[in-house]
Specification:
CATH superfamily: NAD(P)-binding Rossmann-like Domain
CATH class: Alpha Beta
Strand content: 5-15%
Number of strands: 10
Order of helices and strands: HEHEHEHEEEHHEHEHHHHEEH
Strand order of the largest sheet: 3-2-1-4-7-8-9-10
Radius of gyration: 18 Å
């Protein structure tokens, strides 16, 4: 695929649609969904919405006590199992347990992530944002491979972000071993990796009828901002000088219910049949970024995030990194 495949399908939904609206009339009884980060922020809202439509939900949890508290009020068939995306051994244990107890996996939603954190190393000295956001989910997909290939017409949704515009993959220094660490460049690289992962995975699911998509959920205030100081959010225009949500953010940001909608749409919409690997936003396929648009920083997908050759190159690198972990 390429930017030529990034053609909206006029879904009838938009930036302010909610997951409940997107899922209206869709029956998920008999379906199993795995949602990373499903006990916080937009992940929690997605679990709520999918469970309401009858899906059985599996939520990997790094903090069992917190997960128990936040999921206590969510109705439905929801199971939690311990897993840490920064710990490859725990991912493999989790996947082994899931594979042994679950006959099918219809939806894999790679929702969890970290953003703009201080320089941190995980696994075999991977930069944390790349290591958690990309490599953790890559390892999870590989460990769940038999389920992915044996469930007909399953879908994988990989949460990217408009942050992908900040950086392509730093091919010569992915782990910031030579380059001075920049938390936003690292975040941009990780979000580009999430999009390229969906691109490459879509080809590997083709024979089983599976599909993979990348999603930009939109700007939402969630625990994702935990590493940003108040002063930085004021400088970004997200907060006013008084520390309250700015008028700009109120106009442009989404509620968690709205921020869940594009993921729910990518996971279920029949309009995406035959559209493998595309990048979606606002409940539709995103258009290629228009560099002349005043909204170029916020809308559309950049060419480097939907490049087949880059996707395959990253897949090969990720395989090697995982083999060495």
């Amino acid at each position: 695929m390429s930017t030529a495949d990034q053609q909206p399908v006029n879904s009838g939904f938009g930036a302010k649609s909610t997951a409940d609206e997107v899922l209206d009339g869709i029956d998920l009884n008999g379906k199993t969904a795995l949602v990373t980060g499903g006990y916080s922020g937009i992940g929690l809202e997605l679990v709520r919405a999918l469970a309401k439509k009858g899906a059985k939900i599996i939520v990997p949890v790094r903090s069992p006590k917190k997960a128990e508290e936040t999921l206590a009020g969510v109705a439905g068939d929801i199971t939690t199992r311990e897993m840490d995306l920064a710990d490859i051994a725990s991912i493999r244990r989790f996947a082994k347990e899931v594979t042994a107890s679950t006959p099918r996996l219809d939806l894999l939603i790679n929702n969890a992530g970290i953003m703009a954190c201080p320089e941190t190393r995980v696994g075999p000295s991977w930069e944390a944002q790349f290591g958690v956001n990309h490599m953790g989910h890559f390892a999870l997909a590989k460990a769940l491979w038999p389920l992915l290939l044996s469930t007909p017409n399953m879908r994988v949704v990989s949460l990217s972000s408009t942050g992908h515009k900040r950086s392509d993959i730093l091919w010569d220094d992915i782990q910031f071993q030579k380059t001075p660490y920049d938390k936003w460049v690292a975040y941009g690289q990780a979000k580009t990796a999430n999009a390229l992962f969906a691109n490459a995975l879509s080809r590997r699911l083709r024979d089983s009828g599976g599909l993979a998509f990348a999603v930009h959920p939109g700007g939402i205030f969630t625990p994702l901002q935990r590493h940003l100081a108040r002063e930085e959010m004021i400088a970004l225009g997200w907060l006013g000088e008084d520390g309250e949500i700015s008028e700009l953010a109120k106009a442009g940001f989404k509620t968690p219910e709205q921020g869940t909608a594009t993921t729910a749409w990518a996971a279920t919409s029949p309009l995406l049949e035959g559209k493998p690997g595309v990048y979606c936003e606002d409940c539709d396929i995103a258009e290629p970024t228009d560099p002349e648009s005043p909204f170029a920083r916020f809308r559309g997908v950049n060419a480097h995030a939907c490049n087949d050759a880059s996707a395959e190159r990253l897949w090969e690198i990720s395989e090697m990194l995982l083999n060495d972990a």
